[in-house]
Amino acid sequence: MPRIQLREVAQARCGDKGNKVNIGLFAPDEEYYEIFKEKVTSEKVKSHFEGLVNGEVIRYELPNIHAFNFVCMDALDGGGSASIRVDNLGKCFSSNLLRFEIEVPDALMEKRNHHEVNPSGL
């Protein structure tokens, strides 16, 4: 199975409030949503942000829009006014999450590559 970074197929948005980061991850369709559901878990996201997220990572599933919401606790070294980090804002976390790597089935990659070469699907 090929490995890809989420950025190759997904979109993400995030923000921060106090010492928490909220990351929305959007799959392009139901097939990728199911793969993300299996492979982008709270535990793996926490591990991906090792050294940045010190608290719990809670994942909320939004299947109707093929999305997930990750709430990362104790993620900003106390928050904007308390931290001495050079870049302590949560907005950078979505770009970082999009570097997360997953394996995808060959058939799904072939389908994606075919669509990129022939966007009309013909």
| Backbone shape | elongated
**Which fold name corresponds to the CATH topology?**
Gyrase A, domain 2
Chain oligomer state: single chain
Order of helices and strands: EEEHHEEHEH
Total beta strand runs: 6
Order of the strands making up the biggest sheet:
2-3-5-4
Q: Helical segment tally?
A: 4
Overall helicity: 25-40%
Mean pLDDT: 87
**Count of separate structural domains:** 1
N→C terminal distance: 25 Å
Radius of gyration: 16 Å
Domain AtuA-like ferredoxin-fold: 4-102
Pfam families: AtuA_ferredoxin
Protein name: AtuA-like ferredoxin-fold domain-containing protein
Polypeptide structure, described:
It comes from Melghirimyces profundicolus. Residues 4-102 form the AtuA-like ferredoxin-fold domain. With 122 residues, the chain is of the alpha+beta class. The chain has one domain (3-78, 87-117): Gyrase A, domain 2 (2-Layer Sandwich). It is built from four helices and six strands, in the order βββααββαβα. The protein has helices at residues 30-39, 42-48, 93-97, 106-117; strands at 3-5, 11-17, 20-26, 57-62, 67-72, 101-103. The strands form two sheets. A four-stranded antiparallel sheet has the order 2-3-5-4. Strand 4 and strand 5 form a beta hairpin. The protein is elongated, with a radius of gyration of 16 Å. The relative contact order is 0.26. The mean pLDDT is 87.
Which helices and strands occur, and which strands form pairs?
Elements: E1 3-5, E2 11-17, E3 20-26, H1 30-39, H2 42-48, E4 57-62, E5 67-72, H3 93-97, E6 101-103, H4 106-117
Antiparallel strand pairs: 1-6, 2-3, 3-5, 4-5
